[in-house]
Amino acid sequence: MSTQPLADFLAHSVELESEARERYLELAESMAAHHNDAVSEFFLRMAEESRLHLEEVGGIAKDHDLPELKAWEFQWPDEESPETTSYEAVHYRMSLREAMLLALDNERAAEKFYASFARSSSDENTRKLAAQFAAEEASHAAQLVKKLGALPADSGQHLEEDDDPHMPE
């Protein structure tokens, strides 16, 4: 049996990781359709990272009675869960660097979300687990920063369209 704060935290964590995984899979599929293979492969790796974290959270959550929250009952800082890439931020010709920067923003947003739980929860177990999750997200962000440092700078020309727009006459 779990406390209500811990059950709420775990419900949010399961949803956060699940939504992150789903979005990364969608983006990988979209990039593959546009033959942006490097970015597609990167998004697949990020989906796998989310799956692994979801598995970890699910293992912890299985011993707890989680609330069945409706989509509008989740208390996210923004419209969507913190680790979910906005569709508007993605371009089918984006570079690997741009994809990694988006993922870095996601990792930092998830870290901030978990750290907020760690600071504000009234339950000690929730605070400890949230702090652990925040540290994991910070570690993921640090890994991305390291990988970004090894990438060459973008030229910016990759986002230019090859075709003239089709305008009605």
Question: How would you describe this protein?
Answer:
Residues 160-169 have a biased composition (Acidic residues). It holds the Pfam family Rubrerythrin. There is one protein chain. The chain is mainly alpha-helical and 169 residues long. It has a single domain (4-150), classed as Ferritin, core subunit, four-helix bundle (Ferritin), CATH 1.20.1260. The protein contains four helices and no strands. The protein has helices at residues 4-33, 37-61, 96-120, 124-149. Helix 1 (4-33) packs antiparallel against helix 2 (37-61), helix 2 (37-61) runs parallel beside helix 3 and helix 3 runs antiparallel to helix 4 (124-149). The N and C termini lie far apart (67 Å). The model has no long low-confidence stretch (mean pLDDT 89).
Question: What is the compact description of this entry?
Answer:
The chain has 169 residues and is mainly alpha-helical.
List keywords for this structure.
single chain, 169 residues, mainly alpha, Ferritin, 4 helices
